[in-house]
Design brief:
By secondary structure, the protein is an alpha/beta fold. It is built from 9 helices and 8 strands. The chain has an 8-stranded parallel barrel with strand order 1-2-3-4-5-6-7-8, surrounded by 7 helices.
Length: 219
């Protein structure tokens, strides 16, 4: 686990991958190239989330994206696949409510790795914290097409979760440059986005704008 203040800083602009947005039209043809564009634009944390990749493909992607993150000294976590995260010595793992519980994940990855957990209620948030989570991803705070199973989390619930736990919270789900201001004063330390970065025509430029606004609101 990294120190609290360093973790909070790294969670400011949290980018989650999705190869659905790979486009040849903008000159970016690989996932690792997209990730590098995002990091150069200001992304402070990367999660590899590829639900449709088989194990071999996921492993290949993980090594490539991990190399980019190491080059830029950016934390890199794997979504859900705890064993793969351990195998490649990723910085950590992020799990949802339908995945392995946080206590079991912590026992596998050890105390020195980052553990993120998705939460939609105060009860889920408190349990995740108790079981060893380092940070929480709370949402969906807006409607989103990136995650089919995402339940809506109202602003007040987000705020209550932030007040209830001592670990940092990032908001997720449907966040854009336009609606970002609505999350002000909720208690979050940053935002987690997919399409707002990887769905943009110019990833680096979109990330720069998000980073500037996120800094102004939450740093």
């Amino acid at each position: 686990m990294i120190q609290d203040n360093k973790l909070c800083e790294s969670l400011l602009l949290y980018a989650v991958t999705d190869r659905h947005w790979l486009k040849k039209s903008n000159g970016i043809q690989t996932l690792e190239e997209q990730v590098e564009e995002a990091i150069e634009g200001g992304a402070t944390f990367i999660q590899l989330r590829e639900k449709n990749a088989d194990e071999k493909e996921f492993l290949d992607l993980a090594f490539k994206v991990q190399a980019v993150c190491k080059k830029h000294n950016i934390p890199f976590v794997i979504n859900d696949n705890v064993e793969l995260a351990k195998k490649i010595n990723a910085d950590g793992v992020h799990v949802g409510q339908s995945d392995m519980n946080a206590k079991d994940v912590r026992s596998i990855i050890g105390s020195d790795k980052i553990l993120g957990v998705s939460a939609q209620t105060v009860e889920q948030a408190l349990l995740a914290e108790k079981q060893g989570a380092d940070y929480l991803g709370v949402g969906a705070v807006f409607s989103t097409n990136s995650k089919d199973d995402a339940d809506y989390v109202p602003y007040e619930t987000l705020k209550n979760i932030c007040s209830a736990v001592k670990i940092p919270v990032v908001a997720i789900g449907g966040i854009t440059l336009e609606n970002l201001t609505e999350l002000k004063d909720s208690g979050i330390v940053g935002i987690s986005v997919i399409s707002a970065i990887f769905g943009a025509e110019n990833i680096k430029e979109a990330t720069e704008k998000l980073y500037e606004k996120t800094c102004a609101l939450f740093k």
